[in-house]
Amino acid sequence: MAVKLNYREYFKEEALPLMWCAGCGNGILLRAITDALADLEIPPHQVVVSTGIGCWGKADDYMTTHAFHGSHGRALAFATGIKLGNPDLHVIALMGDGDALAIGGNHFIHAARRNIDITAIISNNFTYGMTGGQYSPTTPLSYKTTTSPVGVAEPAFDVCGLAEECGANYVARSTVYHVTQLKRFIAAAIQKKGFNVVEAINTCPTHFGRRNIPGDTVEMMKYIKDIGMPRSRFEKLDEEEKNKYLLTGELVNRERPDFLSVYREINPAASESGRGEGK
Amino acid sequence: MNKTDKEVKIHIDEALCKRCGFCIEFCNTKVYEADQDGLPLIKNLEECTNCRLCELRCPDFAIRVEVVNNE
Fold first, then answer.
1. Going from the N-terminus, what domains does chain B have, and what CATH number goes with each?
2. Min distance A210 CA to chain B CA atoms (Å)
3. A32/B19 CB distance under 8 A
4. What is the pLDDT along chain A (279 residues), one digit of tens a residue?
5. Dihedral through CA A260, CA A186, CA A236, CA A209, nearest 10?
6. For residue A275, is it within any domain?
7. 8 Å CB contact of A179 and B19
8. How many domains does chain A have?
9. Could you give the dihedral angle defined by the CA atoms of residues A155, A156, A159 and A164, in that order, rounded to the nearest 10 degrees?
10. Residue A73 falls within a domain, yes or no?
């Protein structure tokens, strides 16, 4: 009988300690992803993680799966090429909020529109951590960063709302505090065909927390815990209050045909090569 | 023995721990206490329910909760 897989099969223990700051939730998200892969029993050699640049872009260094560490914002562009080149692989794009929505914003929009079979896992810590805490497209209105010392004057992107509008098949949001829920969403996203997005609300005590949340790493985590709100409570808030919280849960779960299925249908010759019926 | 009637062992890797304090703060049964440096000390192992949330929420893979099989 097969031995049950453990997260250690996907995690490079010899690469410890992790490079991230004390209290950064990236390690928690990494654990959730490796746990989800172990639960799904997908062998590491059938998984490719594609990353861009940023703190979270370093995640591929700690995984035993195949990895492609690309340029800033292009994780999805490379992931698209990898998936089309070998549709049998499970392709996971790991991106930060800046990577996915600013530098790579167009790739995100069009990967969702195309509904290509890629799992996008976005670590949203509301700031550009690696480059020194500048404001990102997801920094909440009026919050302070190094480039907005008196507060950001722009409203934040709703990552999940954008993914839904553009056509993603599966969209879910959780936080690094809600670890078991996070793992469940990641596993569902990896299993589902089409473009699937999991947004993990993450901590950045070093930059975002220091300027906006009085206290230490624990206070930063409490903030994350409190702004994530399930639909049952979120719906009861008035419009103004809704801006202060982020709706968590499975927000979209639909069955649009994915890019490769459509492509093969209109171009039957593409199926005859025999490669890659996909998952 | 503890609340799960299973013998639980908690391993903390002091070299990996970055003293973020998540395990100490968010443990539902307050198994941990901080030392002067912020390192979690296992103070109330008998309260541990083996939920393993401390292990999953440790950003640095420094905690391992293990059920000791003593059939």
1. 7-68 (3.30.70.20)
2. 14
3. no
4. 456 789 999 999 999 999 999 999 999 999 999 999 999 999 999 999 999 999 999 999 999 999 999 999 999 999 999 999 999 999 999 999 999 999 999 999 999 999 999 999 999 999 999 999 999 999 999 999 999 999 999 999 999 999 999 999 999 999 999 999 999 999 999 999 999 999 999 999 999 999 999 999 999 999 999 999 999 999 999 998 988 899 999 999 999 999 999 999 998 887 665 555 544
5. -120
6. no
7. no
8. 1
9. -10
10. yes
CATH number at residue A205: 3.40.50.970
Compute the nearest-CA separation of B54 from chain A (Å): 10
Does A14 contact B at CB distance below 8 Å? Answer: no
Position A11 in a domain: no
For A:175-204, CB contacts with B below 8 A are 176-177, 179-180, 183
> With an 8 Å Cβ cutoff, are B58 and A27 in contact?
yes
* A176 vs B contacts (CB less than 8 Å): 57, 59
ipTM field: 0.93
**Helix, strand, coil share (%) of chain B residues, nearest 5:** 15, 25, 60
Q: How many CA atoms lie within 13 A of A177 on its CB side?
A: 22
Residue A277 lies in a domain: no
CA distance A29 to A27: 5
**Domain that residue A146 falls in:** 20-264
Kindly determine whether residue A180 and residue B56, on different chains, have CB atoms separated by under 8 Å: yes
* Nearest CB neighbour to B25, from listed A22, A183, A218: A218
d(CA A11, CA A7): 6
